[in-house]
Specification:
The chain has about 775 residues and is an all-alpha fold. About 70% of the residues lie in helices and about 0% in strands. The chain is built from 35 helices and 2 strands. A hairpin with a 4-residue loop joins strand 1 and strand 2. The longest helix has about 30 residues. The chain is elongated and about 100 Å long.
Length: about 775
């Protein structure tokens, strides 16, 4: 297949499959997952592009999006993007197969598969996008689709809370990315990521704010401290969703962003900032993971910790070690989440304190869980050991404080990994007496993931397994990959690993008293209490503003609106006043006086009919303005609209009560006069300001091109039909809707009219 077409299909096939999923889910129910998993086949087929990517020749494809402004949907499969797209597609394929067994008969299968495929398409588009606008669009689409997935069980309060929290935090990151993308595109002189010039950007005055916003967006998406609060509550999603979000896709989006924009960060203080934020997240995520009793909660905080590790490595320039761990983490974390799904399904519980000895009843599940958990603990001969060695090696170059933080976080990782495995060993504990091994389709998707965990460690040499993946990303990230092996001889990194195992084992052995110490040290406030406190304060503010404004009269609302108009005009428009103002023609002045007389008549009118007459005087005066300015088409339109408006007013007069005098104090009347004068001054300023055009007049273009381009000598007709054809079509549509509405109102019969007995004034007032 054509490489460009394959690249487009990788993103578009899951997107179109998401639209098809509700129909398949309605008929095939959970089994639709087996069929819809094929949507990720083009993504897996990207393997065919690997040879080009390894040679530094990325494949590019583009679809015209808005050709008039040269905006296109551009994709670029460089080595790193290709590697991540392969992981996303492969894990997505396995997750859909797993979901076919996991989902119960009463679930909304079509909606689940649709949201999952939409998320997969968004994530593939994010990692492959080269256009900055497209990157932003896919970034936001991942937030929206993850909100739908986390809140899939929307009747449950925890699901609602988790979905809302994820949306709020990631949406704030999305706003930061929006501003960053705009600044980078303007300063870098290109709308494409591959076209940005690092030197030009660094010399720009917007470089620092752009990178700050970029880092905030990455931290929010990848749950770095203090934005980590959303990720653990996202575990309320179905387990297949947790496995997909936490292992290979959304939570790594921020890490991917830092990796892709790493060329901007090199040699700047931002590398140190990201390093320490990542290490703080590594420690804090591990600390919180160790105190969790729920298996999914433990894995969720573990993900926070592991993301901190990857962020620290990518941010500080150790891209090789970060990429090795990214690949390892995708395999063992997806496998562990799927294991938790089986345990939850068969044992009916995820509580660590309530489970034990499950290996007797779930031997296959235990056999699959052990390699994945030991890889997370960084024990040989699994891939996690290799990436942790590289992590230590990188931190040794950063100084004493980073290596101490790295060691502490790794000790916590080792301890909570062993704690995860306690549900399979020791005395048998489970309230469900009917625990039995899952069926073959349940653990079938687990097998390739665990095989990858084993292969990353046992077959780690260059150009095979993990080495192949990291070698694929090397040209785009600019690192020289070293041979991957379990044994490099005695070294300081090996000594740190041994120290990690010993101290981690000691911490695991005193886990219960350590948990009590953690609870005793827990402060009364944290980021969660700040989040909920902020929401409550915002709600109280909204209620106060509502109580203050919604009970006000219509006149009060108008005062606030016109004050805002006057303030905005006074603060902005005065800067655009021209030096000189052209004299107003005599005929325009005469018509203007007529309009002003109509406005004054409305204010002085005592009856509704007289007010209507004066209003129409102002409206028909506007028609004369167009006649004086030689715009007969606009004059005719204004005449028709004004006539129809007057007829409508006259048609409904008989249903309206008599006019009542609006009473107000002299102070309020004076305030209204000041507001009216300020608004009038604003409008006048605007009219005067536009006398000096901000761009060259376009009339010469129309005069010169109406005949050669539009084929007509009547310039006005050509403008309306050709140059502004869509605008004219919209106006015709509006007029058509108005005409239909007017006809419908005029055709109302007695059934919609109030009954009027008699014709006296008293009867009309009663009506």
């Amino acid at each position: 297949m054509n490489p460009e077409r394959l690249l487009l299909l990788t993103v578009l096939v899951p997107l179109f499959s998401a639209a098809l999923a509700p129909f398949l889910g309605g008929g095939l129910r959970a089994r639709a997952g087996w069929l819809l998993a094929a949507a990720f086949a083009p993504g897996i087929g990207l393997l065919a592009l690997a040879p080009q990517a390894r040679q530094g020749r990325p494949v590019e494809a583009a679809l015209a999006w808005v050709p008039s402004i040269d905006l296109e949907l551009a994709f670029r499969a460089d080595g790193f993007s290709l590697m991540f797209a392969l992981i996303t597609s492969a894990v997505g394929f396995l997750i859909l197969l797993y979901a076919a067994s996991y989902l119960g008969p009463g679930e909304r299968h079509g909606r689940f598969y649709s949201h999952l495929l939409l998320f997969g398409s968004a994530m593939l588009g994010l990692v492959l996008a080269d256009n900055l606008v497209a990157l932003l669009v896919f970034w936001e689409l991942t937030s929206i689709s993850s909100f739908l997935l986390i809140g899939f069980w929307g009747s449950r309060k925890p699901s609602q809370d988790g979905a809302l929290k994820a949306l709020v935090i990631t949406a704030l990151g999305g706003l930061a990315l929006l501003a960053a993308v705009v600044l980078l595109a303007l300063a870098g002189g290109s709308g494409r990521l591959s076209g940005l010039d690092a030197e030009v950007l660094r010399s720009s005055p917007v470089f620092v704010p752009a990178v700050v916003l970029l880092v905030i967006a990455a931290f929010a998406k990848s749950a770095q401290v203090p934005f980590h609060l959303w990720l653990p509550t996202a575990m309320e999603a179905p387990t297949p969703v947790s496995a997909y979000l936490h292992s290979a896709t959304m939570v790594k989006a921020g890490v991917v962003l830092i990796a892709k924009f790493g060329f901007l960060l090199q040699g700047t203080p931002f590398t140190t900032i990201i390093l320490f934020f990542g290490l703080a997240t590594l420690f804090w995520g591990g600390y919180l993971a160790l105190r969790q009793d729920d298996l999914k909660a433990l894995l969720a905080y573990s993900t926070v910790s592991q993301l901190g590790l990857m962020m620290a490595l990518y941010g500080s320039g150790h891209a090789f070690a970060a990429t090795v761990h990214l690949v390892n983490h995708a395999a063992f974390k997806a496998a562990l989440f799927l294991v938790v799904g089986i345990v939850d399904h068969k044992a009916g519980s995820r509580s660590i304190s309530a489970l034990g000895g499950l290996a007797r009843r779930l031997p296959v599940t235990a056999a699959l869980a052990i390699p994945a958990a030991l890889s997370m603990a960084a024990l040989p001969p699994f891939g996690g050991f290799i990436s942790k060695e590289l992590f230590y090696e990188g931190m040794l170059h950063e100084g004493l404080v980073p290596i101490v933080l790295a060691l502490t976080g790794s000790i916590l990782t080792f301890a909570y990994s062993l704690r995860f495995l306690t549900v399979f060993f020791g005395p048998y504990r489970c309230q469900n007496p009917n625990v039995h091994e899952a069926r073959f389709p349940f653990w079938l998707p687990l097998t390739p993931l665990v095989a990858a965990v084993l292969a990353f460690g046992l077959v780690p040499w260059q150009d095979t397994v993990a080495g192949w993946f990291t070698g694929l990303a090397a040209p785009s990230l600019g690192y020289q990959g070293a041979p991957l092996a379990l044994w490099h001889g005695p070294s300081l990194t090996l000594a740190l690993s041994v120290l990690t195992w010993l101290l981690g084992l000691a911490l695991f052995s005193i886990c219960a008293p350590f948990n009590r110490l953690q609870r005793a040290l827990t402060p009364p406030w944290n980021v969660n209490t700040l989040y909920y406190g902020s929401l409550e304060a915002l709600e109280r503010l909204a209620q106060g503003v509502t109580a203050l404004t919604q009970g006000a009269s219509f006149a009060t609302h108008l005062r606030f609106i016109w004050l805002a108009v006057a303030f905005i005009g006074a603060s902005v428009l005065w800067r655009f006043l021209p030096v000189g103002v052209e004299p107003v023609p005599l005929e325009v002045s005469a018509v203007a006086l007529l309009i002003l007389g109509g406005v004054a008549g409305v204010l002085a009118a005592q009856t509704r009919l007289s007010a209507l007459i004066f209003t129409s005087l102002a409206g028909f005066g506007s028609t004369l303005i167009f006649v004086v300015l030689r715009a007969p088409d606009l004059a005719l339109t204004q005449l028709l609209i004004e006539t129809v408006t007057v007829i409508l007013f006259l048609s409904v007069f008989r249903f309206l009560p008599l006019l009542t005098r609006y009473s107000r104090s002299r102070a309020v009347a004076g305030l209204d006069a000041v507001i009216a004068t300020a608004v009038a001054a604003t409008v006048f300023t605007l009219l005067v300001a536009v006398q000096t055009p901000v761009a060259p007049r376009i009339r010469d273009f129309f005069l010169e091109n109406s005949l050669p381009l539009g084929g007509g000598k009547n310039v006005v007709n050509v403008i309306l039909v050709d140059f502004r054809g869509y605008d004219t079509l919209g106006e015709i549509t509006v007029l058509g809707i108005v005409a239909v509405t007017v006809i419908a109102l005029l055709r109302l019969r007695a059934g919609g009219k109030p009954t009027v007995e008699g014709s006296g004034r008293e009867d009309r007032e009663t009506t």
